[in-house]
Amino acid sequence: MTEINIKEIEVLFKLVIEKLKNDRFTSVEFNNDEYWIITTDEWDRFEGFPKPAVGSIKDDLEFLRATIKENVIYSYSDFDRLATILRAISEIQAPSS
Q1: Which of 1, 55, 62, 95 sits most deeply, having the most CB atoms within 10 A of its CB?
Q2: What confidence category does residue 97 fall into, taking pLDDT thresholds of 50, 70 and 90?
């Protein structure tokens, strides 16, 4: 089994923020909205082909902004939404193709 502790996650998030600040980010503009995602219930099944779902960066941001406004993470789905934003930033800065 592979493991990470909460302190390590905290440090990683701090490092992400520092990276963005050091690179002088104040905001990020997304040119695309919809994206494909393999849902977590399928991402570790290697027999057959997964059925991708469609997500929306705009929708993800709306949900995440609501968590900021209320100062609470509503569900673990918010983790997926934040991961999408981080992944989109990564693709902008370091395109995979």
Answers
A1: 55
A2: confident
93 close to 78: Cβ distance less than 8 angstroms:
no
Domain annotation covers residue 17? no
Please indicate, yes or no, if residue 89 is contained in any of the structural domains.
yes
What values do phi and psi take at 46, rounded to 5? -100, 0
How many residues are given for the chain? 97
Nearest to 57 by CA among 30, 22, 75: 30
**Which pLDDT score is estimated for 3?**
97
**Residue 19: inside a domain, yes or no?**
no
The amino acid at residue 32 is N
What tens digit of pLDDT does each residue of 19-41 get?
A: 999 999 999 999 999 999 998 88
Residue 78 domain boundaries:
30-93
